[in-house]
Specification:
The protein is 30% helix and 19% strand. The protein is of the alpha+beta class. α2 packs parallel to α6 and α2 (79-92) crosses α7. The relative contact order is 0.13.
Length: 507
């Protein structure tokens, strides 16, 4: 299965932007069709260039607006990175310290929160509960004191600094500290120090969207007309829209309800431009300060934490990504930080709950062989893990137990090799499944029993990266004439969820 696509390694500057026989356009289109995504914008960085920005489908199906380079999308969890930059800018201004205590800046928080450090908030290592789990109304405006009253009733989940758990409250606190230290609103501080400083023309907060000129096409049967008379409406900047299954437009979340974790709107090109500035010394000047917030770190018990400020870190060529959803939308930004090549992939779409990790990795592979997985991504669904194989196997077992899915066998091939006097890097296969599901397939064609039960392979490669993989179910089932069987899509979705949760710190 290990594959070498080209006899001569494809490097930076190649006009060939395909991967394993598929063009980028083909990969995106197939993914959109599979996940039923109405619209999407892709941007590629090969620093300092942004050589490709492409829109696919409709950014607004109700008004028939096209997804384009200028479409503004909710950046979702990427907003955390803007908040982290704001904190680090104040740190470099010597206006706050990363070991400052929360109680020193916001004395009205509960006493047990007082000694939480700013760095622990950035690391999601505070133990603070997540207010989003209480189902608050994110479509109304909130005052900070209102939010505080909602969340101060719940005890800390763990002693600050001893564990990691993603919580929107961490960044609510950080943005409030930014306001109190800077003397400006968080909106104004980020606008001045990041958006205007970099000259980002299509980035702002939800409340800023009406300041971007765009035509109300609902007045003209959803057909653009003003560009014929006014050049300012040529190649327009338009906010994306999302709709539920009943065709109702998703309301925009209020910035104050998702402050620091989902309040930024931007075009894919602007996010890419901003990320180039972040990768260098434009936004955070000193390398040692960037390393504080964009590199793995260790808990007191020695465990490595491959995540920080919403970013997740991997082993292969310095890969890091930040991703997730807000109601109606999904976002993804990945960056390979190896000094030989800085490549970033940004994907923004108007459907919630989409994980672009696997697609983003394939797209990166189209821009250079050094960025590929070195496995057959067409046949396998591959996810680079963030933990040692042994840890991911344990995490997978726990998830399967929670879902009441029986595990039939665990094959530790490295252990078996050792017992035979041979050497093999960590390689394990977990076999599991539900007889009710598999039996339906075998009733159609008993020979597919060769592929059942389901299995996930986990291994460590020669450079220390860890992987989780399983056969792409539609392709596998297609070999038996069962590719369109209704259970196949459910199997694929389940397997994707399992590898994501077993291999990712924030999943």
């Amino acid at each position: 299965m290990n594959t070498k696509e080209h006899e001569v390694m494809k490097m930076r500057g190649s006009a060939d932007v395909s991967y394993l026989g598929q063009s980028v356009d083909s990969m995106v289109w197939e993914f959109m069709k599979e996940k039923e995504i109405p619209g999407l914008t892709l941007a590629i960085v090969q620093a300092p260039y942004i050589p490709r920005v492409v829109g696919y489908g409709l950014s607004d199906t109700g008004e028939r607006r096209l997804a384009s380079a200028n479409t503004m999308w909710p950046a979702g969890p990427i907003s955390q990175a803007f908040a982290a930059v704001a904190v680090m800018q104040l740190f470099e201004d010597e206006k706050l310290g990363l070991e400052d205590k929360l109680g020193d800046h916001i004395p009205e928080v509960p006493k047990e929160w007082h000694n939480i450090e700013i760095l622990q908030l950035l690391r999601h290592a505070s133990g603070l509960p997540d207010y989003r789990k209480d189902g608050i109304d994110i479509y109304r405006e909130w005052e900070f004191q209102e939010m505080l009253a909602l969340i101060n009733r719940e005890a800390l989940h763990f002693t600050p600094g001893t564990d990691v758990e993603w919580s929107a409250v961490n960044f609510l606190m950080l943005t409030e500290i930014v306001e109190r230290v800077s003397g400006e609103t968080y909106h104004d501080f980020v606008t001045e120090r990041q958006i205007r400083f970099l000259g980002l023309k299509r980035t702002g907060f939800a409340e800023d969207l009406e300041n971007f000129r765009h035509e109300d096409v609902s007045l003209t049967e959803n057909i653009h007309q003003l560009f014929k008379k006014d050049g300012k409406y040529i190649d327009p900047t338009e906010p994306a829209a999302s709709y539920d299954i009943a065709g109702r437009k998703t309301e925009r979340a209020a910035s104050s309800a998702l402050r620091g974790v989902g309040d930024i709107w931007a075009s894919a090109q602007d996010i890419s431009f901003w990320d180039i500035g972040l990768a260098g010394g434009v936004l955070i000047h000193k390398p040692e300060h960037r390393k504080l917030v964009y590199a793995p770190w260790n808990l007191p018990d020695g465990r490595e934490v491959p995540g920080m400020a919403g970013w997740q870190f991997y082993k292969h060529r310095g890969l890091m990504d930040i991703k997730g959803s807000v109601p109606g939308y999904s976002s993804f930004l990945s960056r390979f930080t190896h000094p030989d090549e800085l490549v970033c992939v940004t994907l923004l779409a108007n459907k919630e709950g989409i994980d672009f990790t696997n697609l983003g990795r394939k797209i990166a592979g189209a821009f250079g062989d050094l960025l590929s997985t070195n496995y057959d991504d067409n046949k396998l669904y591959l996810l680079e893990g963030q933990f040692p194989v042994e840890d991911m196997v344990r995490r997978l077992q726990i998830i399967l137990e929670e879902k009441k899915i029986p595990v039939f066998a665990i094959f530790d091939h490295a252990k078996n090799a050792e017992e035979a006097g041979l050497s093999l890097r960590p390689t394990t296969v977990v076999v599991f499944g539900a007889p009710k599901v598999g039996t339906g397939l075998m009733q159609e064609d008993q020979s597919i029993s060769l592929e059942l039960p389901l299995r996930i392979a986990l291994w460590e490669d020669a450079v220390g990266s860890t992987w989780l993989a399983f056969p792409r179910m539609e392709r596998l089932a297609g070999e038996y004439g069962l590719g369109s069987h209704p259970v196949i899509g459910k199997m694929q979705t389940l397997l994707e969820e399992l590898v994501r949760k077993a291999g990712s710190i924030y999943a």
